[in-house]
Amino acid sequence: MAIDFPATPSNGQTFVVGSVTYTYDGTKWTAVAAGGGSLSPGSARQLLQTNAAGTATEWTSDVDVQGTFAVKGTPYPSAGSLSNRNKIINGDMRIDQRNDGAAITSNGGFPVDRWKAYYAGGGVYSGQRSTTTPAGFVNSLLLTVTTADSSIAATDNYLIRHNVEGFNVDDLAWGTASAKSVTLSFWVRSSVTGTYGGSLTNHAENRSYPFSYTISAADTFEYKTITIPGETTGTWLTNNSRGVVVHFALGMGSTYSGTAGAWASTLYFSSTGATNWIATNGATFYLTGVQLEVGEVATPFEHRSYGDELARCQRYYYKAQATGASSSWGMGYVQTTTQARFIQKFPVEMRDEPTALEQSGTAGDYRVYHQFTSTTCSSVPTYFYADTWEAQTNFIVSSGLTVGDGAIARAVNSNAYLAWSAEL
Questions:
Q1: Are residues 28 and 144 part of one domain?
Q2: Whether residue 277 sits in one domain with residue 215
Q3: Do 369 and 410 contact (CB within 8 A), yes or no?
Q4: Other CB atoms closer than 10 Å to residue 355's CB: what's the count?
Q5: Is the residue at 110 inside a domain?
Q6: What is the pLDDT of residues 128-171, one digit of tens each?
Q7: Domains in the chain: how many in total?
Q8: Which DSSP string do the residues of 194-241 spell out, in sequence order?
Q9: Class of residue 222 by CB neighbours under 10 A (exposed 0-12, middle 13-18, buried 19+)
Q10: Is position 362 within any domain?
């Protein structure tokens, strides 16, 4: 409970609460606990606990004004804000606009939003959203080896990557004398134990910080934290390009492996001697709760609302998925007897102007609604124009449209979708 100090104390005045005496030094109250011992400014502070009657009962040691602050064992950030502190988007792997949980094996593909899979070598792994998680999470990213590579060449590399936009790391001041330290934390699980690696790099890939961590027990989620000192050299972008890139390595050749725990002026994706996970066919690797924050203390994962996380992801990729034959994408007008053009507004401003359109690949999934009738498309929708707020799409039919008419872009079934990418 609060202590009601005198409103206008004089220098040297004392005030007693239970077994504790406070003395006013002209600017502040200083406490002396039972048995003596002044808590002077700059020393480790203690919190005075009182009972309902206001009697001091005990001192705690949960506060260190020169170090960290914890409430019931839960640490608070040592720097930065309490909210919006996680630089990682979709760190809990909930958002999967592209695949809705289906597995993919495409090199350079996104098994979940904002997480990109890479492999260069003879091995292949699949990636998908999973419901196997540690307590407190709903989803994780699951990677599974489908083609093993037990003999990795020097330039082979297998990894999962997250690009952090420069606008979201401008507070780090990397590349300057004021560079701030960051802490990376995450939950990980694998069927293959050992020492794993990863790294942080800049956009130009000429500054990197390899790190390592150990998976001690097979098929068991383990919590890991890694503190990275602020980088005072190199160029780190603070615009809408790649600011900081986070890599988790799954098998790495010697060319891209470096000493853990030190900044280097070359491209490293992993630490030297890391486990070759890709060597074991059927091996699994789960990742969730990934957080990158300012400071030297890992705080609990910042659970944002689903809507908030989805909107953050839609800055980089937006998929308008049809739910049935009544789904529509936007209003437009008929340009020719075989083409209508439609405008699709994006729900948030995209990072950059999309330059292509994704669709289902089947013309029969799309139709043009005009003059109270529907005409199924003869070709798949095509990209015409996009800026960061909207896109224009052409729908093509074989005949029957009237120039100048208004029209609506509609789906024939739930397979239809339109999507735009502005990924880093």
A1: no
A2: yes
A3: yes
A4: 10
A5: no
A6: 999 999 999 999 999 999 999 999 999 999 999 999 999 999 99
A7: 3
A8: EEEEEEEE-TTSS-EEEEEEEE-STT--EEEEEEEPPP-SS----SSS
A9: middle
A10: yes
DSSP letter assigned to residue 306: H
**98 token code pair:** 């592209």
The CA distance from 19 to 293, in Å, is 41
In a domain, 104, yes or no: no
Between the two ends of the chain, the Cα-to-Cα distance in Å is: 50
Q: Which residues of the chain have pLDDT under 70?
A: 1-3, 18-19, 32-76, 78-81
Question: Which residues constitute the domain of residue 43?
Answer: 14-66
Q: Which of 61, 59, 86 is nearest to 72 (CA)?
A: 61
Say whether both 237 and 299 belong to one domain. yes
Q: What whole-number distance in Å separates Cα of residue 317 and Cα of residue 290?
A: 20
Same domain, 236 and 350: no
Q: CA torsion sign, 229 to 247 to 131 to 111?
A: positive
- The pLDDT assigned to 78 comes to 65
**pLDDT score at 44:** 37
| d(C-alpha 380, C-alpha 360), whole Å | 8
- Residues 410 and 374: their CA atoms lie apart, in Å, by 9
Distance CA 79, CA 6 (A): 33
Residue 417, token pair as written in the block: 């979708």
Residues 22 and 15: beta-carbon distance below 8 Å: yes
Tell how far CA 97 is from the center of its chain: 15
pLDDT tens for 22-74 read: 888 877 777 765 444 444 443 334 444 444 444 444 444 444 444 555 655 66
Structure tokens at 385: 């124009």
What CATH number has the domain bearing residue 390?
2.60.40
- Tokens (6 digits) for 131: 């419901």
Phi, psi (deg, nearest 5) at residue 326: -90, -5
Separation in Å, CA 209 to CA 28, 199, 206: 44, 5, 10
> Strand 257-258 relative to strand 270-271: parallel, antiparallel, unpaired?
parallel
* Residue 229 domain flag: yes
Question: Tokens for 122?
Answer: 């003879």
pTM: 0.84
3-state secondary structure of 271: strand
Longest CA pairwise span in the chain (Å) = 95
Position 5 scores a pLDDT of 76
pLDDT reported for residue 7? 80
| CA pseudo-torsion sign 327, 330, 332, 337 | negative
Strand partners, 289: none
What is the helix (H) or strand (E) element at residue 190, kind and residue range? strand 182-190
Q: Are residues 414 and 276 in the same domain?
A: no
